Amino acid sequence: MASAQTPTCPEETAMTSKSVIAACLFAALNICTLSARAEADTSPHTYTYGTHLDVQKVLSMTQDTSVTCGIVDARMTYLDSAGKTQVLDYRKFADGCNNEN
Fold this sequence. Notes:
By secondary structure, the protein is of the alpha+beta class. Helices cover 32% and strands 27% of the residues. The chain has one helix and four strands. The longest helix is centred in the N-terminal third of the chain and has 32 residues. 2% of the residues are buried.
């Protein structure tokens, strides 16, 4: 029965740890890149009253930055029931409106 080779000196252990950390970081960056690429490949639709939305999972929500209360442009990226990435542009009250008394 063959046994797994284990590091025999501290330098090998450190190198193995660095390799694992580098692999995890690389995987995390690839996941972020894939979701950004998926959003870029999908043409956005603009919400109008009565638009049927088929949202299974929201991937991201962004809005124009505004320090005051008012209407801003926003975007929601989501997966529909077929697992396809969709992008929806819409208008909403800025998040700053919720904090005013």
